[in-house]
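Archive entry. Fields below.
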Amino acid sequence: MRHTISALVLNQPGVLARVAGLFSGRGFNIESLCVAETLDPSISRMTIVTRGDDQVIEQVTKQLNKLIDVIKVVDFFNNDHVDREMMLVKVKAEMSFRAEILRITDIFRGKIVDVTPNSYTIEVSGDEDKIRAFMDLIKPMGIKEVVRTGKVAISRGSKAI
Amino acid sequence: MKRTGAQILLESLRLEGVDTVFGFPGGMVIDIYNELPNFPIRHILVRHEQAAVHAADGYARSSGRVGVCLVTSGPGATNTVTGIATAYMDSIPLVVFTGQVPTRLIGNDAFQEADIIGITRPCTKHSYLVKDIKDLARTVKEAFYIAQKGRPGPVLVDLPKDVIAGSTEFNYPESVHIKSYNPTYKGHRGQIQKAFKLILKANKPLIYAGGGVISSGASEELIALAKTLSIPVTNTLMGLGGFPGDHELSLGMLGMHGTYRANMAVTNCDLLIAVGARFDDRVTGKVDDFASSAKIVHIDIDPTSVSKSIRVDIPIVGDVKDVLRELNKLAKEEKGDWRGLRKEWLDQIFQWKSTYPLAYKQKDIIKPQYVVEKIYEITRGDAIISTEVGQNQMWTAQYYHFTRPRTLLTSGGLGTMGYGFPAAIGAQIAFPKKTVIDIAGDGSIQMNIQELATVAQYNLPVKIVILNNGYLGMVRQWQGLFYNKCYSQTSLDASPDFIKLAEAYGVVGLRATKPEEVVPTIEKALSISKAVIMEFIVEKEEDVYPMVPAGAPLREMLLA
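PREDICTED_STRUCTURE:
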């Protein structure tokens, strides 16, 4: 099963290495990892997407909690949440496709962030399905480069973690 | 008043109550060594940094206090890695200070530079690189706190030379609060009550007690619970001494080289109460068949130990001492004829014991088991025993009946050959008047034999027993049993003359070659107030039994 896990960690050098080392050392896998400062600059938030059966995920969350620099860990699997990912795509934009690319981008509420005579760079954000659907439509035009942020997630409702 | 980094470090150690540091000087820590004579801290100069860590570990295990090491950067630091990993696997509180090149040179591949934080990240509980002298005092305070709190473990503090040589105002924090680290000590009441209900219902309960009983100082509580409710107890290697090995409810050790009765009891029990133990693969054998007909209660301070390798019915996260105390309270209120209720189960265990007791036949050549048994008898169990790793370790676990906690020092998790001798040095420093004996093999003793110079220098009366069979015995045993006797690279053909070696280092060497010489040799060695090597020329191909082949169910024991 795929799980999205959020961890609040102390914003200190070496914390990322500890978390990454924990995953590699214990044979857990990381599908994506996203880290940035929170409102409190002494604390960072990591969003980790990982895969494993219940026992593995239980170990992942417990082992994360065991790290001295980790303050809190939340697994969003059974919690109602919103997750988003941002993607930048550089796509070939020959004359005949330019209008179609614009239309697709518009439907997905994407933005053209860079233009050249033969390419567009498009910014799209959304959940996994949306990103995938956009990719499926844009692929035939010829993708030159893709970069994705990996998921960030937040719980629904007024409560914060 | 401003103090230098070196002074701040040593003053902080003094305030932490540190009386002994095990170490080895070098370029990046000269400033600390320069200040050392001005502080009431004893420094034990070892001959290899690995031994400094093992000695600090032996000091910690035997005394329950934090072991402290001080080494230089680069090779000094990398030499500590095996010692740190050993302590990490066995949850031993250590603080290891390593020198580091000046901050402006870090990352430059400077002379004697090693990224020791990176190297030790997976085998320390936590680590710090002190980049600013203003953080030094607080870091030392936190290091000692983290090493001891919750599940104990080694903490490494890396000290760049410019931080040590710099100066600042010194204020040692009185207390420490780390918002991200608050281990649970009190067990959940509801879970404890559920567990107790299971205990009341069980017909064939068994306590499986590990090293957590010793590190939390819960031996008395464990004995009380077992006695009140007449529950037999089996110990892991790390747990030996946590429950008296000579008690009628003691089944001895379980697992790969556990007793027949302990392994049969685990296989047949209907309730297994795991106390401060972590279901290690050497204990469980084939996991699916481990206590497969039992409900399992697991008490442990470390949540990651729970449900890691085995399903648990009632997990109780908390300090073993606290949880056992709660269970004892419940047990006291419950009146019942526990002895009577358990009669059938205890009779069954007794029958297993008499069918296949631990046994060997002493004939013309000295049996290693005989040596261990005689050491037990002569010391009346009142000694601190360390072991190396391999057959010597297993025979010690089987034939020396540990009756008190903190009397067995052995590398259980990592299985580090070369651990026992320096660990014995640490224990002897902590307990100068006690008899401290390292039970070794001819292979493992050579992994830290240079420490004979340390015992000679400090006049430490550590006793070393070498069970000399001319082999790396445990590997040879596996080769014999599972690899068609292909004794590849396990014969030690060119060991030194250990008696001459002892003399060369200025300690005493004694050798016994016949069974009748065993007792006089031990007695003589114990009467000498210096370090003594006792070499026993033992049966070359003696095996450790019972043995559960790796990955087999516990009931499938090879008995001879």
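CURATOR_NOTE: The first strand of chain A starts at residue 2 and ends at 10.
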